[in-house]
Every structure is written in C-alpha cells, then in structure tokens.
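[SOLVED] Need 3D model of a two-part complex

Original post:
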Amino acid sequence: MKTKIKMCKQKKYNKIRFFFPYLYPFIILILSIFQSDRIHQSGKKDALYKENLLLRGCTIRNTEEAVGIVIYAGHETKAMLNNNGPRYKRSKLERQMNVDVFWCVIILLVMCLFAALGHGLWMFQYGDKRPVFDVLSPEGTNLSPIMSAIYLFLTMIIVFQVLIPISLFVSIEIVKICQVYFIHQDADLYDEETDSHLQCRALNITEDLGQMQYIFSDKTGTLTENKMVFRRCTVAGVEYSHDANAKRIAMYQEMDSEEEECMSHGGTLPRRDSVGSHQSARVLRSHSTKSHRRTGSRAEAKRASILSKHTAFSSPMEKDITPDPQLLDKVNDCSSQLDFMRLHSQPMSQLPSDLSDVFDFFIALTICNTVVVSSPNQPRQKVSSSLNRSSNKGGSSMQSCPSAESTLTKLNEEQSSSVMEHAFSPAPPSYDGKAFCTPEEGELRYEAESPDEAALVYAARAYKCSLVGRLPDQVTVELPHLGKLNFELLHTLGFDSTRKRMSVVVRHPLTDQITVYTKGADSVIMELIRPPITGKQKKKILCRTQNYLNLYAADGLRTLCIAKKVRSHKDEYAHWLQHHLQAETAIQRREELLFESALRLETNLQLLGATGIEDRLQDGVPETIASLRKAGLQIWVLTGDKQETAVNIAYACKLLDPEEELLTLNADSQEACKLLLEESLHYIQIYPSSPLSSHAASDSVHGLGLVIDGRTLAYALDASLEDTFLTVARSCRSVLCCRSTPLQKSMVVKLVRNKLKVMTLAIGDGANDVSMIQVADVGVGISGQEGMQAVMASDFALPRFRYLQKLLLVHGHWCYSRLANMILYFFYKNAMFVALIFWYQFYCGFSGSAMIDQWYLIFFNLMFSSFPQLISGTLDKDVSAETLQQLPQLYTSGQNSEEYKPYMFWMNMIDAFYQSLVCFFIPYFAYTDSDVDLFTWGTPITTIALLTILLHLGIETKTWVRSWFSPAGSFTAAAHVTWKDHLFSSFDLF
Amino acid sequence: MGKEKSKSGPLARRPDNSAFKQQRLPAWTPMLTASTVLPSFYLLALICMLLGVWLLLTVQNTQEMKVDYTEAGSCNLCFEMRKNVSNAGQKCTCMIMFSIEKAFKGDVFIYYGLRNFHQNLRRYMDSRDDGQMLGRKSNLKSPSSYCKPFDVDEKGVPIAPCGAVANSMFNDSFILTYYTINGPTVVPLLRKGLTWYTDKNVKYRNPKMDNLTLPEVFEGTTRPPYWQKPVYQLDPFDPNNNGFINDDLLVWMREAAFPNFKKLYGFLYRANKPFTKGLPAGNYSVAISYNFPVQYFKGRKEVVLTTVSWFGGQNHFLPIAYLVTSGLILLTAVVLTVVWWKFGKDGKNMAD
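Solution:
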C-alpha cells in the first residue's frame, strides 16, 4: 500500500510563521490535504472548515500533494473587499493648519473685496468723464464702476492667489519625507539583534509624534520580550526553585549591560569569536557559571538569533536552562528505575508515585505541545520517506491528525494482540536517519506555535528528556537511560482561548495505556482535577501547588498546570473517539460539538505539577516609561493577561509605584460596576492630593493606579458609565486593563481619543493589538516575534519598546517643531509678499497692477523662498537630542501645541503685514516724485522683501551654519534671476 | 539605497554613522548676551547715523524747482480751452514766469511732471503691443488685441503705435527763456539721450526700412486718435529720432510707478555761456505749447528743473529715515544698557 506521510500539524506552524500579509490576502484557498485515491475509493466525506483556510502568503510544507478549492479570488478576496483605501490619518498640526488656510482664504477675499470697493469708488470719482488713462473695454464701451469693481474682484483673486499657500502642501510632503528619512537613518533606533531599524510606514504623521498625550501599550511582546524563560516548577507539590537558573538569567542581564558598554567602546562590529559558540550552546551547561559568563553573553545571543532567524523562539537564554539538581536527580533516578523495570519486565505501577509524577510531568512537557523539531543541518523537516504506517489526512488541531478511522480499526486490532514491542522498540529502523538528527549530529531546533511551548520543551530537554522527533502520529522522546521512546499520538486537542488548555492522547510505550496529557491555565485545570478521594496526601499536593501557583503569579511568572489522565480501558477511549469523529464531520454546530467532545475527554484529571515561565521585560522599559511619564504622557497598559501577572509586570516596569494606591475594579454586573466607579470617584474627590489634571498627577508622589479587568471594562465602557470611568481613569496616574479583548482595547482607545480630545498612541506587537493600533492617532507596531500583523497595521514599526523614547521625545519633538515653524513661516512669507502688492493698489487706483514682475511672482514660491525653509524645516534643531532626552519635560511644548497656537497665525499675519509695510513704504518714499518706472521701482522692493523674508527665516532658525547657506543660495538665485530679468526685459519678446 | 544593498552580513541594515544622517552636523546656535547685543546696537546706530549724515549732505547739494503751469498765468485760457474736446485740434500756447534764486550748478535736468495721472493702471499698462514697437512688420499691420480699442481706427486702419499708452502720450512742449540784463536768451536744451540704452536699441525699433523712407514704412497705418501728427513725424528736426525710437515716445512708454510722476524732457546744453556752469540765478520764463488735457482727472502739470547727484534727485526721505532709525536704535541701546547695568550686570540671568 502506497501512502504518503504528511505532516499535517506542520501546516499550522507554517500558517503562523509565514503569515506576514495576514491582513492582505489576495487569494484565499481552502486546502485540504488528504489522500486523494482514498476518498475516491471509499467515497468518504471530509469536512472542510475554517482551519483549512489558507490565506495568501502561506507556505505548505511536508506534502507532495495538495488538493484545494479556490473559494475567494479576484474581487471577492478579503483584501479587495476590505480595500476601501487605507485610513488617511491627518495629523493634528495639519488639521490646525487647514483652519488657518481657511483663514487665509478669508483674508484673501477681504483684501479682494477691499480692492474691488476701492476701485469702484476710484472709478466713481471721475464721474462720466473718463480720464485718458482709463481704457475702455475692448468693445469700446464704458464699464460702470460697479461692473469694473466686480471684474476687479476676480482679477484680484488671481493677483493675490500667492496668499493661499498651495506650495505649502507640497513643501510639507517634501519635509516629511526628509524627516522620515532621518528617522530611518537614526542609528540609535537600530536593533542589532534583529538587524532591523525603525520603519515609518506612514509618511504623513511624523509631527504627531511630538504631540502625544496618551500611550496605550500592550504588555506581552511590547513591554516584555515575549521570550519565555523557564523559571521554576512544582511537581507533585514539591517546589523546585531553580536557583542556578535564576542566577544564570541574572548573569545574562549583567552581561547585557557589560556588553553594551563594551559595544560602545569597541566600535560597532560584534565579536567574531562568538560565532562558533552557537554550536556549543546545545551542550547543557554545568553549574559552573564561569562558562556562562564566557559564552552566554548577549553577543552570542544576538549572533545566534541572527543565524537562526528562521527558527522561532530560540535564543540561548531560552534554550539553556540550568536544571535544578534535586529535580535532575529525581529524573535520573526515575528513568534508571524505569529502565531497570523494563529490563526485568516489572509492571510500571511499582514506581513510587512521586517519581512517576516527575516522569509524567516531563513527558507531558515534552509531548503535550505542537512543537516541530528540526536540525540546523536540515532546518526544514521534509519527511518524504514512505512508512508502512497508518495514513493520515489533514485537519484542524481539534481533529485527530492520524486518520481517526484507521486509529479506530487499529485499536480494535490491538485489543486482541498487543504490539507492545512495536511501540517499545527504540526508533523503528524504517525511520530515515536524517529526519531525526540525534543531538550528536547537531543541535535540534524546536519550532513552536507559542514561545511558552518552546520554553517548556527546552526545559524538559535540560532534564535530558528531549523531544527528538514528531510525526503526525508519533512523538519520539529521548530519555537518559531508556533511550528513545515512541509515543503513539492518537489525538491532539489543540489549544483554544475558550478552553484555555490543550491535550494530547497518546499510547504510553511503557505501560501501553492510553494517556491524556493536558496543559493549560491554572484556573481551568484546577477545576478539572479529580477531587482526591483517597488520602490527605493528594489534597495536600493540590493545596500546595495552588499556593505555589499564587506565588508564581505574584512573581510575575506565567503559570501553566500540567495534568494527566490514564485511560486504562480502550473501550472507553474508542467510545469517545467515535463521538468525537461524529463531531468532527458534523456539518452543523460543529464547533459546539467539538467543544463538548473535548470537555468529555478532559475531566477527572490528575495533577502533575505546574510551571512558572518568565516573560522578561525588554531592556530599558522602566527607564523609558519613567521618562515618557516625565514628558507628561499618560501610559495605559491594556493586556489580555490575567490581573496578577499584569499587575506584577506593571510593578516591574515601574508603571505602578509601590507607594501608589491601587484602585482595583472587579465587578460582576453593570450595577456593581456603577457602584464601584462612583465609589472610586468619590474616593478620588476626597483624596487629599486628588490630582484631577494630569499635571498635578506627575507632581504628587502618591498617585493612584487603576486596575480594571476585562469584564468590568465591558461594563464600564457602556455608554452610561463611560464618562464616570473616564473621570476615574483620568485622575489616576496609571491605568491597567487586564483580560481585555482586542475589541475592548480599541474601544478604550477610541473612548479616550474622542471624549478627551487628546492625541493617542497605541503600541503593540500582536494581531490582538491591530484594532487598537488602527484606532489610535498614531499606531506603533513592535516588529517582534508575533508575526507582522501589528506592523502591517501600524504607522511606525519599532524593533524594541525603548526606542519609543527617542522616537517621541527627540524625533517627535523635532518633527513637530520643525513643521510647525515651517508652516507659520510659510503663512508669513506669502502674506508678506502679497501685502506688498496690496499696498500698491492704493497708488494704482486699485486696478490690480503689480509692481513685481510676473516672473518674480511665479518664481517666488518656486525658487526664491522655497529651499531655505525646506532645509530649515528638515534640519533645524531647536534643542539638541541629548537635552531632549535628558529633560523629557520639554516634550510638553508639543503636547500643548506651543509651537503653533491659533494666535500665532495671526501674530505672523500681523508681522507679515507690518514687514511688508516697511518694505513697501521705504522704497516708496525713496522714489516718490521721481521719474522711476514701475518695474525699476518694483525690483528693489522685491529684493528688499526677499532679503527680509530670508532674514526672518534666519532669525526663526535656531541652529545656524547648516542652514545659512540656503538663504544665501536663495539670494544668489534671486540675484541671478534679477540679472537675467534685465536681460529678459531687454530682449523682452524674443 | 544601492549602497545599502551592496552590504551584506548580519548588520547589513545598520544606518551609516555619519554626521549628516545622524543629524549631528556642526551647528551654531546664536546666544544673545549683553556683551554681544549692546555693542552691535551701538555699532548699528553709528552706521545708520553716518549713512544718514552722508546722504543728507549729498541731498542738500541738489536743487529742485517745480513750476506748476496747469492753470497758472496765461495757461488758464489754454486750460479752459482744452476742456472742450472739439478744440483739440487748435493750438494754444501760454507762458509762465518764474525766478531762480540760487544758481543750479552742474547738469540740469528738465522734466515734465504730471499729477494724478495713473500710468500704472492695469488695463492701461497692458494696452500696448511690444511686438509692434519692436518693429515686427506683422504686428505693425495687425496690432495685438491688447491694444483694443486703440488697435484700429473706425475705418479699420491699424494704428501705429497702437494702444492706450501711446495714444495718451504727453504732447506739451516747452521753450525755456532766461532773462539777462541783455535781454532774453533761450535756454538751450538737449532733447536726445533721454532714454535707456536698451529701450532705444533693443526693446524699441522701427520696422525694417529696406531702402524705404520712414513714412513709406508706416504706410497703411494711421496715427493714434489723440495724436496730432503721425509717429514718423514726431521730431521735425532729426529724422533719426522718429518712428518707434523717438525719445519722447520711449520716455512715455516707460510707465511710471506712481500717479504723481515726472518724466525727462531734456538736459541743459552747457556749451555756451551763460549756461556753462548750469542755470544761473535770475528770471526765467517757460513758453508752453499747451496740448495735454488734464482737467478730466483733476490732474496737474508742471515743469521740473533739477540737478542730480549720484544719489539721484532731491529726496530727503532716505537720509532722514536713516537718522531717525539711528536715533531709535541708539535710544534702545541706551535703555538696554541701563537695564543691563541695573538688573543684569551680575550676569546671572544673562548667563542662563
């Protein structure tokens, strides 16, 4: 029988790993991988559902054949349907500017009206007798004063049109592109580890960075690394603190800082010698910390992550776990005993219960996941070897991966003749040696769906219990004394957020029992634990484990519970499987049925232990938060994590201060929520240093911290309560929303943005932050581990959170102040130039003639006055980068829009009119009563005005030398044109 | 970008650490302190003062004399006569007496001045055909539409020069007489070289002659309606000063910037006594051929005699402006000094 092995599970990883354009699929394929000949022969039905959906950009691996149905293509694709153009974010400054452009129009109209009125009156004073200079219309008829006033009004609009700064819009775009270029080029925003720098994905809102007031941040992956490090575990009620491991991690952090110093001294290239050490990283570290110091440096980490870019979640820090000696002894003890028992064919049940718990715990860690193994030599496991094993078909994580049908039949067979040897024999000979690389051949890499899984597998490997291979229907685990064990994978119930757990059903090779290993959130697992009937011991274990779990959570660790369930009766399992298969192929209510089916399996579990995984804070997060807060920014953290973890991380990153009072809002109902909010509002009002404004909040030492969970948030975001909620939240120094859904995140952002009329920035890294990023005025994506969705939706993509500081405080401030000054200058410049012509109207009967040559009028915006402020708009620095970072308070000038307030427009206008008055009347009085002709007189005026405009820019420019050449150049250009103009005027019509 | 791509290796995308890209170009932020501001204020005041005094002395050396002849003396009759358009063809001359108290030394320029005449009206200024004035034959016979309604006469004959500017050309003429003890002497005037070089030689040209005489060239065109003689007879004495390059026409065609303006009429010819050193003091008369009507627009006409320096004619504005500015700067400087002396001398505030 010719069958093909397809690693159906791998498809899922691929989906996650290669899913960059998640949001922009062009072609959506439903693809079901199944055995084609089989379905023809048997006529068996196979259900297709959303897990089979492959979106654009997926890579299918480990299959030779795939059958698919194109379901959406062309204009029906999600991309095309969603593509009603990207949301055009208009910056606050531009919105403000547009108002002033509108005012410019009004000023223009007033000026034109004035001129028209003047012309009408001027015409009127001559009465019926027309002066010789008053030219008749081409038809030879006399225009009435009213008609000529109307004509003049239209003429004036054209003459004065320079006042409307059309070139301003172009210039702003140019300046923004230059600003984006400089932000891109900033070496401080470059991350060596990932070889990525900041990406500006939106070109038009750079200046908004300088005006932020609220920051909404995700926690996991944004504040933290999203690199899970196994920290401690508890097995059978015994806590293993892994002190050495903690020391090692501390060492890394220490090394980090040393490394950074070293880097800053020693130039830019990281040390070459660390390249080789990557390979040695797989060797489990002894307890000697010396060796860690040497090789476990961050440079290595960087190096390794650069080299192994394709492998997710595998930096040495996550990989090298120093085992707890006590636990390691137990594991060794246990496996040697098992080995002994196996040799002597003793039943496994004789193993002491604590040892067996330890053994099962690690087996669960190793196999209860969806980790794919690959070796560096052969990074992608491409198994095409034929195996005389059961066939399989594609399916969801919930669906049994090996063909369930065949499993059923097999079960029946095996009931009669137990093929223990088969499962028991280490590594069947049919396996291709290359597919499963032994540790000797090279380090194995684990590719996991989530970093937690990888961390657990690495942790298990540290205890010599390593996962060496995974096939759709089989998991191979290597143990110290037992060698390789093949676990027949009967079923996998994938992780989902409602169940918050995942389970695998395997046939245990040693006992030949069908065992269910479950891993999940502690709250869920604890409920499913079989209440201990016998013995205080079990109860005690449960109680202790719960205590440790609380302890872990208090340490800010992510907790997972591991449990198992042994199905000794095959009938029972077969029964369940049948039901489950029905659920899988059901057409209606499939999800529900699957859920119920999973519930049936995951009951009466036996607790094995719990793990604590640390999600490390990113470098510099507390400092960044502190300085952003000094800059007057309100920081809210919106996370999906549980409250305890979130609060602890918040303390760790100095978001919450231990001296702060915490207002915790947890309510079960709308009424309770309302009561709570009112109570806290009351509390805030009587609070001694109750700071209702954000200014006072930063001053007072005793701020308030608000912690609200998802459910309460849902009530609080109700239209009736949102105002109260906002009032409460505003008066708190920091706000922490835990257990919030992506939708809630975006609702919070929207609420704050719309109600408080503030500038909001949302920062996040995962797909769950996308909605919030899109809603905020500025969305920042962390180009981190969790795919690219956030980056795709963001306006700016940062490699690390700490770069936010420089991005906002330095670049934001610069962009804002440069652009604000440039816009004001533009208004001034154009008004000043136009006013010159306006004053002249008093001397030419308001007839609309201009003493400035047409060429000057055309070139004024194009050549004479455009480059200088483009350059100063791009390069001018009001305050140096160092000062801006040292004194974050300077950022408040942008928040309060101090560089561009509405009155400043009018000040500039008045300034422009005053300056033009001077520039006009000095030449006027100097030439009055002379025989000067129009353009001979107009040229000096133009020159003086241009010089004044450039000088004004020179005064406005804060830093000179760099920009000095631009006015000079501009003036040269002007002089050149003046000279040319004389030539032109001589050769006027050639 | 190409440069970036050529790099390879793990840190390929690291931005260049150059001063420009990292925005670390050397820059100078001007720091204003008392020790820099105060001296510069005093210096500025001094410079303005010197300039002002110098200009004032220069301007004081020039002399100017304006004689308004619109309705003065016997011109009153002519003024009344020109009110009636039907009398346009009739000649009218009048004379005005004036005296010069102090001799005009050096070159003397004689201008005619007009007040309230808006040569700078937009429609008026556009009403001309530069192509025609440049001597293009095609434009001569079919003037540009800008000239309307002065492009062709009632019969459809093209007007040369066309347009309102040329049509309204100033056509009074003056004869200046100096009354010595020996009797009246006509003041000799040079009526050539009144124009810019570029006007006379580049911007304005007669149509190509091709062995024809000037009247022949202009055949098929007619004079502007307000003119009394055709363009090729503007100067009866010098045939080379006729047509589109007539000095008076060129001076007129250069449109004045303001409604009150003067235009050059001639220079004093200083070859013969008693005018070798300029205009001597004494009694003068000016005989005017009064043609140009101004009463419609409440205009005034005048004859202006002036001497010039390098700075131009007599204009007191600039020197006074310089002196006033100098005074203001000095005042500010003194106030600043006092403030600095009283409050900021210890330098604490200033140093910040």
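Edit: The CA atoms of residues 667 and 712 of chain A lie 5 Å apart.
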